[in-house]
Sequence to fold (424 residues):
Amino acid sequence: MLKKVQKSKPLKGEITISADKSISHRAVMLASLAKGKSIIKNFSSGADCWSTLNIFKQLGVGVNIIDKKNIEITSDGKLQRSNIPLDAGNSGTTTRLISGILAGQSFDSEIIGDESLSKRPMKRIIIPLTQMGAKINSVDGHLPLTINGQKLHGIVYLSPIASAQVKSCILLAGLNAEGQTTVIEPAPSRNHTELMLKYLGADILIYKNEITLSPSNLTAKDIEITGDISSAAFFIVTGLIVPNSDFIIKNVGINPTRTGILDIVNRMGGGVNILNRCTVSGEECADIRVQYNDSLKGCIIEGNDIPRLIDELPVIAVLASQADGETIVKNAEDLRNKESDRIKCLVNELKKIGVDIQETADGFIISGRCKLKGNAELDCYHDHRLAMSFYVAGMLCDEPITINGFEWTNISFPEFEELMSSLE
Ligand code: S3P
Fold:
C-alpha cells in the first residue's frame, strides 16, 4: 500500500497510546503457563501479538476474546502438542520466547514464520537452549525450527548480547527446568519478563544485570497492559520537530529499561514533561506532554543506551536530522538483525529526502538541521518501524512523500495514522 504524507500543521490535543507489544506477548505466554483464569486488559491490536495468541490457542490454551482489547485465558498450566506448525508470522519475540517454552515440553513442535522472520538469526537462542539440554533443528540457525521436547536443566548463561528476547527465552525454559537458571547480560535489556514472572508469583531474584529463576508454578491473575513507549516515540519525535506542536500522550509505559528515548531527548536539550505517574500490573506508567523545541542539539548514543532504545533508533534518526550538529549512533550493530537491516535501509531511504546521514558498521552519523525536501518514494522494506519513522519525516518535508508498504504498520501499531490525524 502506497501512503502519501504531506507537511503537517502544528499538532495539539491528547491521545491515548496503544498497548505495549512486548508486554502483550508476555501476558499471553505467562497466563497460558499459569493454572486458572486470567483476563488480559488492553491487549495490543498489533499482528505480532495476535500471532502469539493464535499459537497458544493451537497449544490447547482456552482463549476467549471478550472484545478486541480484552482477552480471557484459561489454562491448566499445561500445553498440548499442535498437529500443524506454529506460525509466528513476522514476530521475532514470539519465535524466540516460545522456543524457550517449547524446548522443555513432553512433545515436539515446529515453528515457521514469514520471509523476513525466516532470515533472522536464531542461533542466539539455540546455543543456550542446547546447553540446557534442548534438541532443536534449524536451517543453519534460521526458521523453520523443529523442537524435540526434552527435560531441561538450569544453567548459568553469560549472554554475549544485551537482548531481552534471549534472556526471556532462557528464563521461560528455566521455569520448567531442573535446578536454578541464571542469565547475566552485558547491559540491562527490557525486564518485562522478570517483572511479570514476579507479578505471577515466580521464585525470581533480580540483581542488576543478573537474573536467577527457580522452577516455579505461576498463579493466574488479571494483567493490564500499559501503553507502548516504542509507539509513543513516533509522537514524541513528531511533537518535538513539527513547529508549534503541544500535546499529551496518555498511558505510556515508562519502565526504566525502555526510557532511553526520554534520556536522549533530554541529552539533546528537549525535555518532555512526565505527568500522573502510576503502576499498572507491576509496570510504571505516566502521561507525557510534548512541546515543539527549536534548539535541539546532536549527541552521542552508545553503549548501555542502546538496549534501552533499540527500537526507537529509526525515529531518533529523524529527530537528529532536525538538531544542531552531529548525532553519532554506535554499538547498534544488532539493528541489522531486526525486521530489516535497519541501518542500511534507514540510511538509503532518509538520503532520498535530504537527510545528511552516513552508514557505519554499527550505526550511523547524522549532520543535523537538514532541510527535508520530500518529493520521493520511500520503501519501508516490510518493516513497521521504518514505515512509521518515514511518516514522521514526511510530516516535515516541503513536498509530499509516498511510503511503499505502509500496511506493515499493522505489525505493531494499526492505530498509528488515526491517532496522528486526531492531533492535526
Ligand atoms: C523485544 C526485544 C528487543 C526488541 C524487540 C522486542 C522483546 O529485541 O528489539 O522489538 O519484546 O523482548 P532484542 O531482545 O533482540 O534486542
